[in-house]
Design goal:
2 copies of one chain form a homodimer. In chain A, 28% of the residues lie in helices and 24% in strands. The first copy, chain A, is an alpha+beta fold. Chain A has 4 domains: 90 residues, OB fold (Dihydrolipoamide Acetyltransferase, E2P) (Beta Barrel), CATH 2.40.50; 171 residues, Bira Bifunctional Protein, Domain 2 (BirA Bifunctional Protein, domain 2, 2-Layer Sandwich); 143 residues, GAD-like domain (Gyrase A, domain 2); 75 residues, no CATH class. An 8-stranded mixed sheet of chain A has the order 6-9-10-22-21-20-17-11, sandwiched between helices. At the A-B interface, strand 1, helix 3, helix 4, strand 6 and strand 7 of A face strand 1, helix 3, helix 4, strand 6 and strand 7 of B.
Chain lengths: 612, 612
């Protein structure tokens, strides 16, 4: 061993002990005849003091930043203590030292506030990983990993490894494929998730399965997507939705406690997908703050359960006389607390914000509900004060609030209002970094309508069960859509999934469902998705086969591990929580991968390039 | 939840409790008006008793093997108890039941001694996994996984995930590659091991790293190889060989205790590679038994350290007069304890055994050292009794032993003797299933000579350091081999690696090394392997770069997780310990993978087939 102690463990009570430390030179400070060196390792920083005799040696072999140094000496109480670090009471009076390895000058400083840009840090990721900020992230990631395993082990779950070289069955996302040398012309696929395998394990009787496992999706990468990502993947047999919700709120609460020291004792709130869309305009609402959507007007075919509630809207009577609202499919308001005194400039800026192409709205209507109870709006021409008051009341506004109204096509308007709400929540400091609010979103639609193919697509995935009460609806009806214009009237349009998402502070951290376990129902699902019987057998014959031999009721969930860590770590970026991430083109710039391969390799794999 | 208890937990003290169980029908036995059903789940088997009223219902909806059944009733003491199962004291008086899913008749019986052949069981792996024998294996695997993580966590190791989509740098085994859609003409590779990443993590200061991780090798599969396999992968910084050996004997001992309940308190034996080859003819000897090799004659260029020992050989004087021995490069004897009374037939059978093509020897010489001290051999014509006695003594034989002698070319003869030793060890019951003997093999040669390229190849891998005392030899000499015939005189031929293998009962379960951490030495290594500077930079530029910025001394080890589990589970086959293994052609016969993919997929990946 090159050391007797780490750079993080020596304290005052070690005074007088002979120790050997090894680590990296963080700083070198010369004061006349003596030199101070801060030596750093994974565990901390310890100050080394080189006295006069050694200084001559240091002159011969000068130390530089990031040199690897081994030093032996006595622990000694410091005269000027450093209260900022745990070893700040002591220093090492160095008696001998050895440079274990030199270092070139690093391309950026190894500090929390580094001077390295993103590209440079990625290229020299092995240096970036030395920075405390990155180290803390990886430590947090390991703590989440460990807490997850401990909880699930305690609950009787078994970690069972599923294969990585599987069969390509692209449903939504593209598969990464792997040419097989031994089977020319054939390919393996890398798993997008172990979905079918964990279901097979349920059929096999392993009633509590989990894995922390890499998954792969060949998608066009958005800012915060990685082609390979990690999932906490779980499945249980003989359970209903309620059992899953309880088990996995337990997991997340355990992680909060183990990793953040937070006792999450509150009941985890639950809402339906429809309610979330109605109240927040999004299926993963941030419920740390209110500012709920006031649905002044929505098209008749949506929110079928809300027809009664809509009657309370001041717009329920019909045309308002204001063309923008009357011509819009949807009109939604939010009441921004305490913002009635926003200046013209601030409101103009918000208007510009909703007009940005990412949001894409035409404009923003505002009503100031002044502290004195008076109302003033940008559409005073069309609405009297009583009407404005009615809108304010419907939006739940209090005197002092600012009411913002968006109007346009249903989907875009709802999304825009949701984003405006989040933006204002951020600006008003309502999205507190140290507050964590969990939410279950339930009862998603089982299907979405695919206009292009005039068919259904699975909203979650093709293995999700409908609500138990709707199984007969699904089996008893032909999935084909006769009349594209009236697809909403098809019995399948109203089928809800036995599915659930877990949302944390406005991020979907996990999702899952109770699965189909009956062959007939699974076949119906494949048919609904436009798969022929042959195609279904070719792709999923093993699963349909398994359902013939005593498949138990089962369900599960998967958490996005990278995302969960980044939220717990208070960061927007999952890349900060991955040791060796890829950039937005899917490249590892440190390795310079992907790269070309030899013709011999191509030849052995019975493939050739086909570049356009 | 579909159940209140599992099928493994009810005992006599539960009598009178109302319970609901769910599981699979193992057996149905009708006795007149009552029916017994054995219900099985992951946790055990519980007997259900269906009384007269329910029997009518059972007649309407008969239960078959592997049906999924939910049954509610009262726990009751059995009249005839079954001592073989933990729940054997009780049964459930069923009050109501529900068939949760039917089952077709399984293609083989779900029993320890199943009637299913290998192919059938692989095709229906989800049913095979229901068998107790397979379940026990996966449970053992999980126990090893858990024990490994607990030990390493306790020792301060961090689980850090390394990427799966990396760069192809084939050195030895072929890489599996993954075409990149976003980077046409370029490929990722799947890692053969996280070797370079774990070294980079050491450079980054994460001084104790581990992972239980999938690795991939596109090799022609032998009986017990899998294209994807799992490794316990570990690395430490600021350590020397001794630290690694101590740390990881600790791991294996911890696993023994946690998984098998075995206190492995003995000192783990150590030997050098040369000693192992000399004494056992193999670098992974099974030391549960002796029967060591007696080297009567070896060629001069091998075992340079054994020249003195060889002088004690009865053949040291020169020609023996027996042409087979005198013409052979190598002559090795083993003394088989208590086998002097082997019949002619038994000896003929052993002779046939060594003549099989897999062993490939010409014949087998035997000397019977009879219990009365007399000696009788198959070569009496050439050797007098005194000479035979000298051979017997040299082989460490006792009266009653049978001495077997093989002669031929060094490598083949040594290997054959080693295999003969193992075979006899097995036949004599010396390789006990419940005995575990660990051994460290140290000081491997750093290089092997590659005749074809007249160059060196790395015996372990190109990142392994030479012994500290030989670093100067390596740096100070030109790796090129001027005279192929005299390659053994090259200074590199004698360089030993700072490497170690852990052997358990004759199986290599793990191996590793202290790594090179100096750029100059690493460059020398690449040069020795015949890599140009450009090639080295293209393939491993990131690692050479990392060594510029303060790389610490480090080393590590990797254990073959599948193999370790199979040995602990007492099985020859690693497939029995993998949930979804592939067959010897690399196929998953359950999925029917690999498989062809769509032209659209090929096109998007900018590749096309090139079938011969």
């Amino acid at each position: 061993m090159y050391r007797s102690h780490t750079c993080g463990e020596l304290r005052l009570h070690h005074s007088g002990t002979s120790v050997t430390l090894a680590g990296w030179v963080q700083t070198v400070r010369k004061f006349g005849a003596i030199t101070f060196v801060d030596l750093r390792d994974r565990y901390g920083i310890t100050q080394l003091l080189f006295g006069e005799e050694l200084n001559a040696q240091l002159d011969e072999t000068p130390l530089g930043r990031e040199f690897v140094l081994q030093a032996t000496g006595k622990v000694s109480e410091r005269t000027s203590k450093n209260g900022n670090i745990p070893t700040g009471d002591i220093e090492i009076l160095v008696e001998s030292f050895k440079i274990l390895n030199k270092s070139a000058v690093p391309p950026f400083t190894i500090q929390d506030d580094t001077d390295g840009g993103d590209d440079l840090r990625m290229k020299y990721r092995y240096l970036d990983l030395r920075r405390n900020a990155v180290k803390r992230n990886l430590e947090l990631r390991y703590a989440v990993n460990r807490a997850t395993r401990n909880y699930l082990h305690g609950q009787g779950f078994m970690d069972i490894e599923t294969p990585f070289l599987i069969k390509s069955t692209p449903e939504g996302a593209r598969d990464f494929v792997v040419p097989s040398r031994m089977n020319p012309g054939e390919f393996y696929a890398l798993p997008q998730s172990p979905q079918t395998f964990k279901q097979l394990l349920m059929v096999s009787g392993y009633d509590r399965y989990y894995q922390i496992v890499k998954c792969f999706r060949d998608e066009d990468l958005r800012a915060d997507r990685q082609p390979e990502f990690t999932q906490i993947d779980c499945e249980m047999a003989f359970v209903e939705q309620e059992d899953i919700l309880n088990m996995f709120e337990g997991l997340i609460k355990h992680i909060f406690k183990a990793v953040k020291g937070i006792d999450y004792t509150e009941v985890v709130e639950r809402t339906t997908w429809e309610e979330a869309m109605w109240q927040y305009g999004i299926d993963k609402p941030d419920i740390r703050f209110g500012m709920k959507l006031a649905n002044l007007k929505v098209p008749g075919h949506t929110f079928l359960d809300k027809q009664e509630a809509l009657k309370a809207s001041p717009f329920a009577g019909g045309a308002t006389g204001f063309g923008v609202f009357d011509g819009a499919e949807t009109v939604i308001a939010i009441a921004v607390p305490g913002a009635a005194e926003y200046t013209r400039k601030q409101i103009d800026e918000l208007t510009d914000w909703v007009k940005r192409p990412q949001i894409g709205m035409q404009g923003l209507v505002n009503i100031k509900y002044n502290a004195d109870g008076s109302l003033k709006s940008s559409v005073d021409k069309f609405f009297g004060e009583a009407q404005l008051k009615a809108i304010a009341d419907y939006a739940g506004a209090q005197p002092g609030d600012l009411i913002l109204i968006l109007a346009g096509a249903e989907e875009r308007t709802r999304k825009a209002t949701s984003e405006l709400r989040l933006e204002l929540g951020k600006r008003l400091g309502l999205r507190k970094a140290d507050e964590f609010k969990l939410l279950w979103v339930l009862d998603f639609p089982l299907f979405e309508y695919d206009e292009e193919g005039n068919r259904w697509v699975a909203r979650h995935h093709p293995f999700t069960s409908p609500k138990p009460s709707q199984i007969d609806t699904m089996i008893g009806n032909d999935p084909r859509i006769e009349n594209a214009a009236e697809y909403l009237k098809h019995p399948y349009a109203g089928i809800k999934a036995n599915a659930y998402d877990m949302v944390l502070n406005g991020n979907e951290i996990g999702g899952g469902s109770i699965r189909i376990f009956q062959r007939e129902l699974q076949e119906k699902m494949f048919a609904a998705l436009g798969m022929s019987e042959e195609e279904a057998m070719h792709k999923f014959g093993f699963l349909l086969g398994a359902f013939e031999y005593g498949a138990p009721p089962h369900g599960g969930i998967a958490f996005g591990f990278d995302r969960l860590c980044s939220i717990l770590g208070g960061s927007e970026s999952i890349r900060d929580f991955i040791a060796f991430p890829k950039n937005n083109s899917g490249r590892d710039v440190m390795l310079d991968a992907p790269a070309t391969i030899d013709d011999k390799q191509l030849d052995e794999l019975s493939i050739q390039l086909n570049l356009k």
